[in-house]
Design brief:
The structure is a homodimer of 392-residue chains. The first copy, chain A, is an alpha+beta fold. Chain A has helices at residues 5-12, 31-46, 89-104, 131-136, 142-145, 156-159, 184-188, 226-244, 278-299, 318-324, 339-345, 371-388, and strands spanning 24-25, 50-53, 59-63, 70-76, 81-83, 113-118, 171-179, 192-198, 201-209, 213-214, 247-256, 262-263, 266-274, 302-311, 314-315, 331-334, 350-355. Chain A folds into two domains: 5-199 and 313-389, 3-Layer(aba) Sandwich (Aminopeptidase); 201-311, Alpha-Beta Plaits. In chain A, strand 2 (50-53) and strand 3 form a beta hairpin. The first copy, chain A, is elongated and about 80 Å long. Chain A starts with a helix and ends with a helix.
Chain lengths: 392, 392
């Protein structure tokens, strides 16, 4: 019995969803994300797909067929904290539905087709986005990855087996379908688009150190308060990004000791920065660092800035993008990172399909795509797979 | 066998102290604070003091003697997060040592002397400072207190028995010894001082609400980012306090969802504000609220400000202060809240002794007092108790 796109979407919807906010909490290797994973394995079994996994939490479900190098599609099942339903799962559910469409059409592939799920795409638990695809593609080594720690101090090496991955050994093309993050397709009146490139981007940790003291008894002029340095840095980052047409965000901050009646000793904050090209990104991060350092001198505090990750611009395979594009499928850039960007950088020709997002909102419970657009995405993905996997 | 001040101090020193920073973590009803409490009960047993407790975690150890209303001394054993050794414990250890001094002198009190330990003085776990003394003195009712929740969502009503307290029924005077928080006694060259008053102060919660979205794909001009509102509010509070000679501090902030690659939906932050008089405090909080609200309009966010606690100025009993003061014991105000302030407000004539703090630093591992000054504090406290408890 075939399970439709709509039914799969309904089955997956409650997994890791907050009853109060509707936001998703599918951090990698937590109960909710493992439940989503178990759901995926069930759907693969239902379709007689052969599941292969590696020691990093990545999985590919194979439609074994024909011979020669494989065509891979898929996405991820993990979410940001309080995320939306579509970012990741839409690509996985659409890939399974595209397999169903191809089989309904009587299509017989001339080479294998894989449906992949990459681990920790969001970097919402371990502090490196696209962790699974970086490891599977050899862009990151296990010795570095195993030491990455989550907020509770748990090492990545303690939650996965590790080792080496040869999941991608036979893959020579990857197509990832994803909900659009932004309103480009809305403005263009298109249900589905094709990615041209990913903006260069990175996350930068600002360690700001001052001196803990009593909030009541310490005169304002005797303080060395790193919260002031942080506050000015937030405003400086916003302003620099605004005037240069780029993006900078402080979405996470840890304060130590975090007492209401104490001046903090340290503030640790993360800046997400993205720009249309690499010199612009470098200038943005440089400007914010300089302004933070100047303010720190005034506050009597210290600032250290560490690039926890920095991803250069990714230009997707141009020939492949042209093959996917069409009158009703415009080619657009994105400022969001994806596993597809990692695979392209690792030398696997890669393309992305975007499905229209009526509000443009993402990484939020408000994230949305209309079912008709999702089904158009499934058809587009099935067409692409049929084209790439030749066959009949 | 008598246990000296120094020995008691040494015994208590390792309890709840971080091995890496030297800071103390004695949040109420946690293992470390309970260990400090157990230490106190042992010292009371050693001195044949009769221990009486209430359902809020408050304890008084009685030196039963004579008749009539009692003289109470003591302080608290809980600490802020990453606090110092002296804030609280110095008053408890000094009270026990003062009992020893009086007994060594052969002093026989004409009325009972109590050594009290009040629960949750710092408000470092449940969000209301002086929680134990407020409840014991009837300044707060159990119905309100039981609903107070810590950061993990645990209700105060789930960690204590509650009910009503009559611990203070026979107390008609309270003297609390405390390490000075500030450098007033250093500048005056005095080992011990006497408190005149406590500045009015409060903690104000700022709930700032915007809209969660993707940090990469959302254009700067499309954002409703509450982190910007927060940052401007921090700087405005600092500036307003500086120009008016008052105090304002943001030492704690929670960000939801707190993802590196997401614009936050809400920022919740706490302002500690203190001023030399009540109109000045009101003006300070009003100015910061107004500036935060103006900025929120610019950011497309919302701000709500809630006074979680607001403590009016406390003037300690003037006659009592005069009785304690002397040529070498100056009378000084303080900007720090204390259980003594609560008891004074509840109608129990109250005084405070301060012991010199060479750096003035408090609520920090750097908090300090020289042993000679601590011993001078014990002698001063013994003198005060002898004076108040009449006897021979």
């Amino acid at each position: 019995m075939q399970v439709t796109f709509e039914q799969m979407w309904t089955d997956l919807a409650p997994v890791g969803r907050s009853a109060t906010t509707g936001g998703y909490h599918r951090q990698p290797f937590t109960a909710a994300e493992r439940e989503a994973h178990a759901w995926f394995l069930e759907e693969c079994a239902r379709r007689d797909l052969r599941v292969e996994s590696d020691g990093f939490g990545n999985v590919i479900a194979w439609w074994d067929a024909g011979s020669g190098p494989a065509v891979l599609t898929g996405s991820h099942l993990d979410s940001v904290r309080e995320g939306g339903a579509y970012d990741g799962p839409l690509g996985v559910v659409s890939a399974l539905a595209a397999v169903d469409v191809l089989r309904d059409r009587g299509f017989v592939p001339s080479r294998p087709i894989g449906v992949g799920v990459f681990a920790e795409e969001e970097g919402s638990r371990f502090p490196l986005a696209c962790l699974g695809s970086r490891l599977a593609s050899g862009r990151l080594d296990w010795a570095s990855a195993r030491e990455l720690r989550d907020r509770e101090g748990v090492a990545f090496g303690d939650v996965v087996e590790g080792g080496t991955s040869d999941l991608l050994r036979d893959v020579d093309v990857y197509v990832e379908l994803h909900v659009e993050q932004g309103r480009d397709l809305v403005d263009r009146g298109a249900a589905v688009g094709v990615a041209s490139a990913i903006w260069p981007h990175g996350r930068y940790r600002f360690d700001m150190t001052g001196a803990a003291d009593h909030a009541g008894t310490t005169r304002m002029e005797d303080r060395r308060d790193p919260m002031l340095t942080y506050a000015m840095t937030v405003l400086a980052a916003n302003k620099q990004a605004r005037v240069s047409g780029q993006r900078a965000t402080f979405g996470r901050v840890d304060v130590d000791p975090g007492s209401t009646n104490g001046i903090p000793s340290t503030v640790t904050a993360w800046m997400d920065a993205r720009a249309s090209d690499e010199p612009a990104l470098e200038a943005l991060v440089g400007d914010v660092t300089r302004l933070a350092t100047e303010r720190a001198q005034r506050d009597g505090t210290m600032v250290a800035v560490i690039a926890e990750s920095a991803t250069p611009e990714v230009r997707f395979d141009a020939a492949l993008a042209r093959r996917l594009a069409g009158a009703d499928r415009p080619v657009i850039p994105t400022a969001a990172g994806h596993d597809a960007g990692i695979l392209q950088t690792a030398g696997i020709p890669t393309a992305m399909l975007f499905v229209r997002n009526p509000t443009g909102v993402s990484h939020s419970p408000e994230e949305h795509a209309e079912t008709a657009d999702c089904l158009a995405g499934v058809e587009a993905l099935a067409d692409v797979l049929a084209d790439l996997a030749g066959g009949s």
